[in-house]
Design brief:
With about 120 residues, the chain is α+β, with helices and mostly antiparallel strands. It is built from 4 helices and 4 strands, in the order E-H-E-H-E-H-H-E.
Length: about 120
């Protein structure tokens, strides 16, 4: 079954187009290096929860919107090899150096598929 990297970030609303531009480039790079799928989603129905929530997890401020993203790979081994190539790809270095969001508040991780229907 597929392996998935998931990400949640808070993006200032005024930077969403800059984020889209960076995400488009990132998606092209990941796919070029072998990722199966690259998806970026903007929050539409994610209230700030009392104890837990997507906005709370990334400490989203009033002027920020939550973005939930994932990348799928054939396996963990393929993901590790693809990510090594992506991290060495010079096309992303400038974009990430000037990221249109606070990368310190990004939540990310790799997940093995439990069920896929």
């Amino acid at each position: 079954m597929a392996y998935v990297d998931g990400f949640v970030v808070a993006v200032p609303k005024q930077n969403i187009e800059a984020y889209r531009k960076l995400a488009t480039l990132a998606g092209e790079v990941w796919k070029e290096h072998g990722a199966l799928k690259y998806v970026e989603c903007v929050a539409d129905d994610v209230p700030y929860g009392e104890l837990t929530s997507f906005p709370r997890a990334v400490q989203a401020k009033e002027d920020e919107i939550v973005v939930f993203s994932w990348i799928t790979y054939e396996s963990r081994e393929k993901r590790d090899a693809i990510n090594a190539k992506v991290m060495a790809d010079p096309r992303l270095k400038d974009g990430m150096a000037n990221a249109p969001f606070d990368a310190k508040r990004m939540i990310y991780g790799g997940f093995s598929t439990l069920l896929e229907m």
